[in-house]
Amino acid sequence: MTVEPLGRATRSRYAAVYDPKLRSIFYQSILLAILAWLAFEFALNAKANLQAQNIATGFGFFDNTAGFGVNQSLIAYQESDSYGRVFLVGLLNTLLVSALGIALATVIGFLVGIGRLSGNWLIARLAGGYVELIRNLPLLFQILFWYLAVLGALPPPRAAMSVFDEIFLSNRGIVVPRPLFAEGAGVVLAVLAAGIAATIALCFWARRRQEKTGRQFPVGRTAAGLILGLPLIALAATGFPIGFESPQLRGFNFVGGITMIPEFVALLIALSTYTAAFIAEIVRAGILAVPRGQSEAAYSLGLKPGRSMRLVVIPQAMRVIIPPLTSQFLNLTKNSSLAVGIGYPDLFAVFAGTTLNQTGQAIEILAITMAVYLFISLVTSLLMNWYNARLQLAER
Amino acid sequence: MTQHAAFVRAAMAKPEPPPVASRGVIGWARGNLFNNWLNAALTLLSLFLIWTVVTPLVRFLLVDAVWQGAGRADCLPEKAGDAIGACWPFIGAKFAQLIYGFYPWHLHWRVDLTFALGAMLLVPLMIPRAPFKTLNTILLFGLFPVLAFFLLVGGNFGLEHVETRSWGGLLVTLVVAVTGIVASLPLGILLALGRRSHMPVVRALCVAFIEFWRGVPLITVLFFATYMLPLFLPNSWTIDALLRVLVGVALFSAAYMAEVVRGGLQAIPRGQFEAASALGLGYWKTMGFVVLPQALRLVIPGIVNNFIGLFKDTTLVLIVSIFDLLGQLRAAFADPNWATPSMLFTGFAFAGIVYFLFCFSMSRYSLFIERHLGGGRR
């Protein structure tokens, strides 16, 4: 089949040059060699530079005393604690603002996204205006705006705005009552947990029964009884062991209650409203991706608009929504590192910011910081991929 | 049979107009805003919301605003009246700082000339019907960066040298954004090709590179460029602070660009590759003449969207002490000569309008080009 006019000797000489396999091995080894040489040079330079600048290497600094304060910490922290503790404090703060931001952004995003498709012209326009305005302004701009212009303009604690004298807004942040758990509160909490568990089990059972027999079970009313009613009875039975500690103005600041520092509030508002605008567009696209025939079929079966949306359109839209939604959640988590711009003590600000400044160990600290964000990204996308795969199973 | 005289209409009766309640403005409002109780409540709520947001905004920006003044005193409530509006003289006084940073006054013409050249090359490229697209592209992406570099940095051709440390404001914002896009496009294309390559080592390296940069926040990349990069380079090399940031931004956006381009590559049917092979084209010729021209056309909206993201992300450079528009705004807030209650809102309003105009026009352009390309394909 092949024509081989070349002599044996010439052929083998050329064949080696034109053999795609050999060529690709050749190119790849050159690439690897260049990379290895670069890495070697970098390592040599780094060693020389670190020695010249007298910077220690290794991870020993984790045990050294940090010596700086952090204005929000979920775990006990003092200035005399180690850098390892600082890392933990920052990581928890990042996770806190990310988790709350994701929850808020999802709620706002779904509301705005559905609002954009509303039959009410004004609501649709309003939602559209929100999305356009928020999406076209830089996030750092919005964070600074909320922090400097809005929260910074609030009155000092003495003239704080209050809601029912329980919640106070001032330029020191937002103070809310702190729940106090006396003896017996554990029983109430246990009852509450049991109620929630029972409700979840009930949902599964009711759905299975409906799929088998077609008979519906009043899940909503039973769940309300289980989650609200039972703990209330337990509360009364144990003599109301849960109270609230209201914040009091003492001198120049508030005492008692839980204080949310303005940095946290500004970051949370900016992150959740910003991401919500993107989520709204994703939700809108997802709902529009469900063919009209689906909702028309639902109407012709006699389902009301609300139920056809909930039972027919949304489950199908979710398949389109989930993958881009995941990347928005990841974006929010990564964007929480902008906290450094206003001084919210997240992982980046306290670790890659202050700790890096104090120890000078740029390589180790930045490598750890990047690894943490990479790890969070990978875990989140794994979880969401798992959820996504579960949804896709329903498809034929 | 006698003829019965009966009235028979020769022509159809004119139709009655629909009831007032179902036509015109009233009908539209009934259909769209008040078609049930819930919607009526939502409409009223939205009207209230719009009223409470828009009226103070208009009052602040226009009605109560102070338009002329020389200093802080003109914008204080004692002089300007009880209702405090925007203090526009503040922006007027800081305008040069917000646009040029501390670029020497007598050299502002060089920045202006660069802006004008960029706009002159960009506008015809964006209009689909304008001719000489290839030449225009080469001029904009090849010649313009070189020209801009010599114009802005100087030190040659009798131009005075200006250190990048004194650059700032919108100038830096645009420099970072434009360099990011110009550098990231070829790099992103190479990465995308590498990710679809048949060579396992190349593919693995490209995947690792892309996933790594996409998995970390931009701010860590900027810190990497500022603190870590100098450690890896020989001691004798001193790299300009702005250049370091530009390297970081270019690598970061290249990873995102690679994913956009990959989307385009995947959309090209196999037949195109096979046809190119049948014609005897090698890898680079196949990609350069057949696949990429089609793939890149497909992803122009994605590229523009990436550019919007990059433009917004340029604000992050202020964290590594490079004063872009937002950074200069922050610096301007610290000036006690203009410290008034309305200063913050005025500054944010101005910067917000600038950012919004840039991003909004880019996103509209992206929509336009999407429709334009889509029309041609259908």
Write the layout of secondary structure elements.
The complex is a heterodimer of chains A (396) and B (378).
Chain A: H1 8-18, H2 20-52, H3 83-116, H4 121-135, H5 139-151, E1 161-163, E2 167-170, E3 173-176, E4 178-181, H6 185-213, H7 219-237, E5 242-245, E6 248-250, E7 253-255, E8 258-260, H8 262-289, H9 292-300, H10 305-335, H11 347-359, H12 362-392
Antiparallel strand pairs in A: 1-2, 2-3, 3-8, 4-5, 6-7
Helix pairs in contact in A: 3-4, 3-8, 3-11, 4-8, 5-8, 6-7, 8-10, 9-10, 10-12, 11-12
Chain B: H1 24-32, H2 37-63, H3 77-80, H4 88-100, H5 108-126, H6 133-153, H7 169-195, H8 200-215, H9 218-232, H10 241-266, H11 270-278, H12 283-298, H13 300-313, H14 325-333, H15 343-377
Helix pairs in contact in B: 4-7, 4-14, 5-6, 7-8, 7-10, 7-13, 7-14, 8-10, 9-10, 10-12, 10-13, 11-12, 13-15, 14-15
Describe it.
The complex is a heterodimer of chains A (396) and B (378). Chain A is α+β, with helices and mostly antiparallel strands and 396 residues long. Chain A has a domain at 83-138 and 261-392: MetI-like (MetI-like fold, Orthogonal Bundle). Helices cover 67% and strands 7% of the residues of chain A. Chain A is built from twelve helices and eight strands. In chain A, the strands form three sheets. Chain A has a four-stranded antiparallel sheet. Chain A is globular, with a radius of gyration of 29 Å. Chain B has 378 residues and is an all-alpha fold. Chain B has a domain at 186-313: MetI-like fold (Orthogonal Bundle), CATH 1.10.3720.10. In chain B, 69% of the residues lie in helices and 0% in strands. Chain B has 15 helices and no strands. In chain B, α7 crosses α10, α7 (169-195) packs across α13 (300-313) and α10 packs across α12 (283-298). In chain B, 32% of the residues are buried.
